Amino acid sequence: MEIEIQLTDAPIAERISPPTQLGVQGTWLEFRGVVRGDECGQPIAALEYEAYPEMAEREIRRLLEAISVRHQCLAAKVIHRVGIVPVGEAAIYLGIAAKHRAEAIALLGEFMDRLKQDVPVWKRRAISLEVGRVTPCAPSDGGQRTARLASKSLAEAIAEISSRCQPLPAVRVLLEEAFDRVLRQQVCATEDLPSCDRSTRDGYAVLADDASENFKIVDTIHAADWKPRQLKFGEAVRVATGAALPFDGVRVVMQENVERAGDHIRITKHEAGSNLRRRGEDVKAGQPLVQSGVRLDAGKLALLATAGCIQPLVNPRLRVAHFTTGDEIISPDQAPKPGQIRDSNSILIRGLLQNFSCDLEQKHLPENFEAAWAQLDLNRIAAADLVLVSGGASVGDKDFTRPLLERLGFEIVFAQVNVRPGRPLIFGVNGSRVAFGLPGNPLSHFVCFHFAVATALARLAGGTAPVFLRGKLAAKLDDIPCPRETLWPARREFSGGEIKLQPLAWASSGDVTCFASANALIRVPAGSAPLAVGAEVDFLAAGVMLGI
Amino acid sequence: MRVLFFAQLKDVTGCAATEIVSPSPLNREQLWAALLEKFPGLNMHRANVRLARNWEYAGGETQFTNGDEVALIPPVSGG
Fold it and tell me: What's the whole-model pTM score?
């Protein structure tokens, strides 16, 4: 691919010609990113851009070359402004020559996403409409730290996470890569489905109002054929199941109901139905097929394929960095010495993330803070959308995770929830990135994942947070009244037309046996008296069916 | 080696570049230690800053040597 790159402090020309040596090659796609009249909600007059020119040029070239391996284009021209760019002027220009528009559009979308992540160009400041007033353009640098934070109720914690996590910029991907991602556009039918009347039987198409007994076979239509023609009274066309019928106003006589002799048929039994799937019977052109915000499963992807939506706009794969801590934690393949326990949280987190199209990196950190810090790859962490730290079981770990997240630049939003199990849950944000410190006990992990981490993942992906559903207790839940709200592991089953919840035996947050069967978490209000069989309760679906 | 600062990091250090001389190659930890000694204010930005060596993002194992052009890249915001 031919690549031309310019960083310039001059306005980008109104007209830019495609590279002439390419001649007419089908597509010349142009994109201009124009400075908007507001920044962070404030009206502005201009933006000032700064670049590291040598590296910016190399990164732009590297990105274009990497992306064009997948979306082959012929040439690209990139112009990025530096210095002051007034509102209404283009800050970036991208021209792409390609044989077909699909490659050019795909390259454009992906390149712009990557440019905003990797190319060393910065919006340095916004120049206000008020003469001389400048504001820095939201540098993402840690923010305020608060020593003491109020403990959050379950509802408050979920609401806080929902509001602090914003959907990541959407990307276009091939259908094959879209499984389990959240659709970020509404997809509508571009044509009627079926696109013409089709036969539902093997038989003979005749005019709908032709009451003849005998017909002459004038043609044959197979499933893949398209043979428009006029039929006359007394004429029939042999059709296969699924065949596109030659025109409107026909019916199909099942072959079982005729006698055939040579190229003639005689109807032996009259039918009431017409044996057709009518044009647009399933879907009318323009009708919404899949709404934005919906998780794409196999069925929805099949619908997108039918509609020709081959590169849906979806959430990017989420990059997750997960750290386990605690010197007592050993790898599952080792035999624990007294005081040691095998690490179950790594595989638990990996498994729970399966539903979220994530790229996960996991690492175990030593308990010593500075030793742990030295082992961190900060570039990698800076690139992660979500950072999870699993504390060890010891008390000292509570002191470990929060300073670690703070040094990583996260503003701690809360560091405790009034929820059992999972009280010392930490939640932090750093720009669009979020972090959780998960209490080390496996059951606390399980619970915190489902109400907190799943909420953040769903929101980052552009979906909605998991919701509480209603069900009935299949057995009494006579827990001692607890001053904290409890999420009680349970087994949910659907029987007799309702959801029944069987509370599972559970004594401490270190208990692990209930994992094997838990697929729901019952919400037991703070201070609740024992609940009787048949009591209506709220629950969160767990393990499977996370409810995005 | 010459170390370049961009965007808000210029405000922190008060300069666009500095010179660090080391008798032996530095790994990222050692480089950061040298930088923080000169500019302690960089510490709070450290988690968000990516390092580049000779116009390419540096990997975890990168060694920085005299003669390199090093850059501290805060989160970018082009386009």
Answer: 0.59
